[in-house]
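Standup notes
- DV: blocked on the single-chain target, sequence here:
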Amino acid sequence: SLERINDDVLRELCELLRPMRQLRPFSTTSKRIREVCKPILFRRSLVDTPINLCTWEDFVPRQIRPYVQNLIFDGYRMFLVPTEPRPLIQPPPLAGVIAQLPNLTRITIKHNRAGVPLPVLIAMLSLPQLRVFDVEGTVQDDNGESWSPQAFTFAAAPLTRYRQALSHQKLDRPRTGDKDIIAALARKSTFQRSLVTLIIPNEAAPLSELFANSWPRLRHLSFQGGAFYPEQFGPLIHLLDKMPELDELELNVARRQDQPSLTLQVCPSGWMGPFPSSQLRHLTVAYPDPGDPLYSHLPTSLRHIALRCWPRHYIFGDSADHVSLSELGWQSPILPASRMLQLLSRCRCPELQELDVEFMHDYRGIELLRHIGKAFPKLTTLMLHHYYQGRAPDVSEREVGEALSGLKSLQVLYFYLEMRRLSPTYMSQALGVRQLRLRQDTAITLARALAPSVKVICLLQRYGTENKWRSYRVLRPTGDDPDVHVHHDTSCHDEFGVR
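- DV (later): unblocked, structure below
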């Protein structure tokens, strides 16, 4: 019987049942099993009622507080202070309740546009056991008051991960307080010594504090959003000098229409290397500068490179998004194929396994694809966003496949070829059926020209504002059927990690 199983085995069983949503019914089996289940059953607690409408029990019931490890707030205006008192509801003193969660190590705030009251925010970031702070939206509340420097004298938690994510919509840009709170943390030695992952909007990046301090444990640095100007503090490579353990670097920096330079330069002219971290494995740069010395001195440890637009170039062609991006003053100065070829010709990355490039077709478009096929022989995943401008003739899928046929280790190809017959942003049902047939024909043509190692071809499928990769499994010739076939197969998402 279950009563004879020791607690360690029961806990393993609980972990297996949790993803299958069977843990709660299992916990009602007996009192002993209920006690074993509690730490797993309640370690993740979701609060989706606005705090001003919460009672103590709506928030985190007292009896489960010892077990909560991940506290999740999910709502548009979770922390909004009511304009009128509600005598029948006594909201919990949130800062005090958070302090009563002894095992809380992670706080997640989702879909939040109203910010977080400063006392609550400081209570969160002061928890000595907190390790992860993850927020979608702004952290400065809606009252419009500026935060005084005296407010940030708290003792910071030794966070390993600080993430703030915003969309590219104008409504979701950072406020002054977003930068203030990150800057306050960046000035604290505890934060400097403990931080492993920093993912923040560019506009909220406290560049002065980041440049002025060392980050000995930082492994993942990600800037994403509007234009920022590190030049006043020095070249970006000088910031990276302070991060010797860096494993992943993402510079998704939008370009403003009023910026003198259309590309992002990481290293100054004449920089001779080497790259500060000898173990960098992932590099993403939006609007890279082909003349940047960085690309002549990349570490051989690199396994993934993305040279792209941010947001993706096709987003600027969508009517709704284009209005929002224009209001932000953003543009998409995508590199032509000839300049992307110039850049990639300087990269010496023989062990590269994944490459993501976004470019505008020109007279060297096919030459660029052939270079990729020769320069990176160990690629297993390739993502191509291939655009056209003006009256440039369409390149055929067969030409693309033949140009890439030198990639003998390639397994997954993501392919967006902006062709007149394949690139509507909205499709009626009848047109959609025709487009799906065209995509299947495209996948077959590519599969026949590519190396036999290719197992999956993913084509971008765009319906309105939705952009999804449609995956086709490649079926190679057998004794009974000498031809190459493809079929749409969603199981590729799990088998090959298709996005």
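- Follow-up: The first strand starts at residue 44 and ends at 47.
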